[in-house]
Every structure is written in C-alpha cells, then in structure tokens.
Amino acid sequence: MTTSKRFGYIRVSTVAQDLGRQQDALTADGIDAADVFSDRISGTRTSRPGLDDLLSRVRPGDSITVHSLDRLGRSALHVFQTIADLEERGVTVHSLKESEAALTGATGEFVRKLMVLVAELERNMNAERVAEARAARAARAQSGEQIAGRPRTALSPSKVAEVQKLKAKGRTPSEIVKLAGVSRASVYRALSTT
C-alpha cells in the first residue's frame, strides 16, 4: 500500500537571496527538510530544475506545500495552471500564506478560472500596448523623427577610412576604439560597410 507524502518547494530569485525563511516555515509545518526542493532562479524562467525534479516525483495522494503561491510560477496564469495540472494528477497544493479556500473545492475552482481570465486580459492588454508602441515608432520613423534612445552619430568618411585602415593592419576592434577615438558600435558599423 502506497502512503501519501508531503513535499515542499521554495524559491528565491537570485543567488544573493536566502532560502532560510521559507525553509524554516516549511519545516515548522512538519515537512522533512529532505523533502523540500528549491531553486535560486527567477520565477520568469520557464524551466526551474528544483521544481521540475519535484513535479517528476510526486504521485497521486501526495501534497506540495509552498510558502506562497507566487513561488510556483512566473505569472498568476502559470501558477494556477500548475495547480490545476497537479490536481488532475491527484496531487494537492497547500500554501502557508494564502487561504486554503483559494486552492480547493468550488471556491478554488472559481478563483482559478477568474485568475486565468485576469491573466489572459493582462496578456491581451500588454500585446495591445506593444502593438501600439510599435506602430507609433514606425510612424515616427517614416516622418524622420528621432526614435527614443541614444542618437546615432554617423562617422565622417575620413573616420570610416581610418577605422578600415586600422583593421587592415590587423588591429582588434578594442585597439581601433582607442586609436580612432570612436565607440565600439561605430567601429563595427564602419567595418560592416566594407
């Protein structure tokens, strides 16, 4: 007879951050430290080795406890999709921070669906903003208006010739930058015209 097992998952976004607070909270909740999986990686990363390892080990009847739900994913949609996938596999998710009602039963299902809709709305609004910004940049470029960012300064023909001569003499781009007194980007632009 297989017995259910409690696992934990903790994550911080950078190597400089400490996992200790989350680890202590899960241990205090009765989860064996050996059954806690961790990642020191941004939540925006699609693949997280610790979480991937944990997800490959859980079986129906098991549970995963997290300090807070945002540890599980890169967006609200990703978090709730992960929870829904685990529930389909017979694995329950518990959060020490959020209410259990947000995860289970009819209320949990409603909250998940609502969060999916909010995430889709957020994604659509962001795509719309990106498309509008792209169209505005294209319109400014057609009118000859300077696009935001550092202005591009063209090298004089004599500077371009100087950069190309230095390259022909076997100088590296770093050496050319120092000798010609131009930026690295200008060096590469000048060399690309040959």
TrEMBL record:
Tree of life domain: Bacteria
UniProt xrefs under PROSITE patterns: RECOMBINASES_1, RECOMBINASES_3
Active-site residues, Swiss-Prot/TrEMBL: S13
CDD domains per record: HTH_Hin_like, SR_ResInv
Keywords, ordered alphabetically: DNA integration, DNA recombination, DNA-binding
Gene3D superfamilies found in the cross-reference section: Homeodomain-like, Resolvase, N-terminal catalytic domain
The keyword Chaperone is assigned to this record: no
Domain (Resolvase/invertase-type recombinase catalytic): residue spans on this chain: 5-141
Protein name from the UniProt record: Recombinase family protein
